[in-house]
Amino acid sequence: MSDKDSLVRLLDLDPEFIIDIKYATDNNFTKQRVYNFNDCYLNKDTAILLIKAKKIFKKDGYKVKVWDAYRPIRAQKLLFEIVPIDDFVATPPDMRKPIIFEYSHMNGLSVDITLVDSNGNELEMPTEFDDFTEMAGLGCDKIPPQARKNAEYLKSVMESVGFKAYRNEWWHFNDVVTKATPYSDVEFN
Ligand SMILES: C[C@@H](N)C(=O)N[C@H](C)C(=O)O
Ligand SMILES: [Zn+2]
After folding, report:
1. Where are the domains of the chain?
2. Which residues, in sequence order, are bridge partners of residue 17?
3. ipTM of the complex
4. Residue 150 has what DSSP assignment?
5. What is the distance between the alpha carbons of residues 185 and 68, in angstroms, rounded to a whole number?
6. Separation of 58 CA from ligand 2 center, angstroms?
7. Whose CA is nearest to atom 7 of ligand 1?
8. Cβ of residue 165 lying under 6 Å from some atom of ligand 1
9. Does the predicted model carry a pTM greater than 0.95?
10. Neighbour-count burial for 27-48, b at 16+ CB within 10 Å, e otherwise
């Protein structure tokens, strides 16, 4: 199976997501376009889990907005060159060495998301996307109550279907159910 075959386009499985891929624009912390595909690709099983979560959010009146999903190894390297802090940007792999693959954006097992209400407004959350400060972690005691409540709701639903929240970034979730596949460098478009 090629890399491309193990990744699916989320909207082909379910059109009810809002796709706002920040790294396909220059509106992200790098101030440049990181990759060309303005679309959400995920491991198929991860996409199925996300659709499960979406159904719960939908019942509660919310939509899921996806900021990032699959990202090529090349893109991970670029992000890390700009912010080389492993707590916020995962260290890219050295592909010349043997690697134990884990859940990652580089195999489409991680997603960066937020929630949107019925008026199309993003829910108040602890920070903006990719705010690499302590405020982005749910352990921070300075988060306003409503933002904390929203982020904890997001986390509880995502964890109920098999994702694991990432302690440093309220928006980042790893699929810890699906067997991790090799990282990929494929580009779409
Ligand atoms: C860069 C940020 N959006 C993110 O996804 N961070 C995690 C740790 C990652 O790079 O995998
Ligand atoms: Zn992420």
Report:
1. 3-175
2. 64
3. 0.98
4. H
5. 15
6. 22
7. 89
8. no
9. yes
10. ebbbeeebbebebbbbbebbbb
Cα(86) to ligand 1 centroid in Å equals 9
pLDDT in tens, 10-67: 999 999 999 999 999 999 999 999 999 999 999 999 999 999 999 999 999 999 999 9
User: How do residues 60-118 score in pLDDT, each as one tens digit?
Assistant: 999 999 999 999 999 999 999 999 999 999 999 998 889 999 999 999 999 999 999 99
What is the CATH architecture assignment of 3-175? 2-Layer Sandwich (3.30)
| Lookup result for tokens 């067997």 | 179
45 is in an annotated binding site: no
Ligand nearest the Cα of residue 106 is 1
Beta strands 17-19; 41-43: pairing state: unpaired
Strand locations in 59-140, DSSP E? 63-68, 110-116
Taking the C-alpha atoms of residue 5 and residue 128, their distance in angstroms, rounded to an integer, is: 33
- The answer to whether residues 101 and 130 touch, using CB atoms and an 8 Å cutoff, is no
